[in-house]
Specification:
single chain, Rossmann fold, nine-stranded mixed sheet, alpha/beta, three-stranded mixed sheet
Amino acid sequence: MTVADWYADFADRQARGSSPAYERLSRAVATDDELLALLATVPPAKRQPNLLFAVVRLLGGPVGDVAAFRSYVLDRWEAVERELRTRATQTNEIGRSALLLPVLAALPQPLALLELGASAGLNLYPDRYAYRYGDVTVGSAGPVVTCEATGLTPPSRLPGVVWRAGIDLNPLDVTSAGDRAWLEALIWPEHDARRERLRAAAALVAADPPRLVRGDLVEALPGLLAAAPPDATPVVFHTSVLYQLPAERREAFLSLVRSLPVRWISIEDPEVVPFDGLPDPPAGGPHKNVLALDGKPLAWAEAHGRSLAWFGDPG
């Protein structure tokens, strides 16, 4: 896939129906030879749309107007390039906890959670948030996450978590003003409710930070997992992370996690973690990822946690 194709695909499958601003920008970049030439000067992983747009927002640049955005990037490319090379997409969207909750609540309790690509670790606290699935509310404290769920009965309880840890190449610290600014820049411009939830979750996590390890997820996983308490169910999970890994590293991880004595939850693009015999995804709306437990697909899930369409065994 060329960089132009990447931006056009992002507009069609990710931004459309979710962020008009990012859809407009993506389509514009996809046909702009000058911007594409600049992006070609940075490593392939640093050319992705969400990273470029977040960097411009972090620097105070405009994303609501295509012409202003283009001028900003061209005029300040040195600063934009510097941030592109040092930053990574680390969206810490607690809405994804609403996708995890039905699986986590059904596992043998208590749980030891280990997140891969944890960013600041906000999704390591699914027991501290409240959830609204239609008319059903689960939990009564913390930020409220709303998810449109079909095909399943929402859980009646929150999971019991006794240990939480995460791995990231560049863990973020919610007590750092700079790291919080980057987390907010990664939230799409129209998503005000997500921004407010992020701030509430960051305050909650800052009062009781998780253990976050800097490292490669394949190399660091076995050692960190060994520190989990033996009387808890070990759960390794990741959401929209594996697309950032080169194909050979992704395969190394999949081979490793399948060999470990853990419950494994993945929420990834079906082109990244493929499955045979998937039903058609729900029509309309943003592109859907697949929620799976131990390699068994269970549901279609919107990447930011706004919807969950269950098709697997309810048990």
